[in-house]
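Severity: low
Component: inverse-folding endpoint
Summary: output formatting inconsistent between runs
Steps to reproduce: submit the following structure tokens with default settings.
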């Protein structure tokens, strides 16, 4: 085992979980045994919530301009430790080193945004009648929780922790049990940056701890990022316990390619979008709809896909189960009559025979009802459908229950606008394969890709992590008398 057994992080100390249950952490790159992760019990959660509750009065009363000083330092520490954090991210998740570097760079951008929060939460004040003022303030909620998935071991935790904490909350983070190492390192960096003990806590575990979070009477808000199946469970359970909840789910993102698209740029974007992070991104292109004759562009996409080499510029998928699931989707499509133009099944990387790789896969002549057309595959696979018109393409995109992202590739601005207006997704790209809005814009999909109001990052997150206090004051004896008096 390369690393010591992982521990929870409670009240500023790393501590053993009391449950006695644990799981092995295996690197998808080569099957190496990295560590073991505890599967904590509700008793462990109670300890973390108690630590967070203890820290809250002082942290929430610290002026926000002081609170964000921790994040200026944390940002510097992320920069200083970028290489080590990126290596750890690759090791536990399987993505390539350069993808991990981009992930940590995104953490830095998210932290930069958090340092700007004092400028965004100044509140409002207005003399509403003579001598009478109304004023609003953003007030932190208390103890909040963040449950995160495996595909971005550092970035998704940093979607929530800098903003929630800078806004005055104390947090319990529940990392994915598949990639539990990075969050422990983030906890150390937060401590080094000067974050008071108890403001950030980590409780590792599985379904048991997620349920305990949703049920805990002292947790005010739950944010969740993961599959739609679990997002629905968490949203229902947390809100039935009267908690605020924002639950981001899975995706099936459609790229619509029109015949006037620039072939080289389009092919590069499609190939990069479907294969980046081994297709394990909720913003990955998973379905492409060719409108009219786009054969030349599809040829180029295949050319690009063949340049993607597992173990070199393509990482591993998270585990064997996922590898087999992806391969099953490809085989099913083939059996149903689709044509496999580039086949990533049975991929082995020399020297990393125990790694779990799937090569880039391009499937053409997919029909809208096939499972590769409708389900989230979460692997480096693009399913190509063909239509004659843009409206037929939009009908396919609109019929999908998800709604994270959609993109169009065209040189026709009017047509791009037509698609932006009609695609049923929260994030739309024009000639952009992965249309992630960058800070200060917020991240969040529609439909079954997100449950709850608002988005998880950017300005929108302020409303989720705070409640608004409205005060009306009258100090002046000559204040106007009206129906409010
Ligand atoms: P997952 O839903 O399996 O797990 C997410 C979290 O939920 C983990 O912490 C896990 O421990 C916990 N969990 C798993 N099963 C549970 C259950 N039955 N009850 C309660 N908790 C449970 O997701 P994953 O496989 O880790 O991540 C991949 C998924 O996340 C994909 O569907 C991807 O699209 C989605 N995702 C979405 C976004 C977004 O912004 N919409 C971002 C990243 C990932």
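Observed output (run 2 of 3):
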């Amino acid at each position: 085992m390369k690393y010591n057994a992982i521990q929870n992080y409670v009240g500023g100390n790393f501590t053993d979980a009391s449950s006695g249950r644990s799981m092995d952490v295996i690197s998808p790159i080569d099957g190496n045994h990295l560590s073991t992760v505890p599967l904590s019990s509700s008793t462990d959660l109670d300890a973390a919530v108690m630590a967070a509750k203890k820290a809250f009065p002082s942290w929430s009363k610290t002026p926000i301009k002081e609170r964000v000083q921790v994040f200026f330092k944390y940002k510097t520490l992320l920069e200083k430790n970028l290489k080590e954090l990126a290596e750890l991210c690759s090791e536990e998740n399987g993505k390539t080193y350069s993808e991990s570097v981009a992930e940590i760079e995104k953490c830095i951008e998210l932290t930069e945004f958090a340092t700007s929060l004092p400028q965004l939460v100044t509140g409002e004040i207005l003399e509403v009648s003579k001598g009478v003022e109304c004023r609003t303030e953003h007030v932190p909620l208390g103890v909040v929780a963040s449950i995160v998935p495996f595909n971005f071991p550092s970035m998704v935790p940093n979607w929530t922790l800098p903003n929630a904490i800078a806004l005055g909350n104390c947090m319990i983070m529940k990392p994915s049990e598949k990639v539990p190492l990075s969050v422990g390192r983030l906890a150390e960096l937060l401590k080094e940056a000067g974050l008071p003990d108890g403001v950030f806590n980590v409780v590792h575990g599985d379904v048991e701890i997620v349920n305990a979070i949703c049920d805990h009477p002292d947790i005010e808000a739950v944010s969740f990022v993961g599959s739609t199946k679990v997002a629905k469970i968490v949203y229902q359970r947390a809100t039935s316990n009267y908690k605020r909840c924002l639950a981001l789910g899975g995706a099936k993102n459609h790229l619509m390619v029109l015949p006037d698209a620039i072939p080289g740029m389009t092919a590069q974007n499609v190939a990069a979008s479907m294969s980046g992070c081994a297709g394990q991104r909720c913003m990955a292109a998973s379905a492409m709809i060719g409108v009219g004759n786009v054969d030349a562009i599809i040829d180029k996409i295949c050319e690009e896909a063949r340049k993607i080499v597992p173990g070199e510029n393509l990482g591993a998928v998270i585990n064997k189960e996922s590898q087999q699931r992806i391969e099953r989707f490809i085989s099913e499509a083939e059996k149903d009559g689709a044509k496999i133009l580039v086949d990533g099944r049975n991929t082995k990387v020399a020297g990393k025979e125990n790694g779990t790789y799937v090569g880039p896969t391009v499937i053409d002549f997919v029909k809208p009802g096939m499972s590769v057309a409708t389900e989230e595959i979460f692997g480096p696979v693009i399913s190509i459908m063909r239509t004659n018109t843009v409206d037929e393409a939009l009908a396919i995109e609109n019929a999908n229950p998800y709604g994270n992202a959609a993109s169009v590739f065209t040189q026709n601005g009017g047509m791009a606008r037509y698609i932006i207006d009609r695609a049923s997704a929260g994030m739309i790209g024009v000639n952009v394969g992965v249309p992630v809005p960058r800070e200060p814009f917020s991240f969040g999909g529609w439909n079954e890709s997100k449950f709850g109001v608002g988005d998880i990052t950017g300005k929108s997150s302020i409303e989720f992590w705070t409640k608004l206090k409205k005060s009306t004051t009258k100090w002046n004896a000559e204040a106007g008398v009206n129906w409010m008096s």
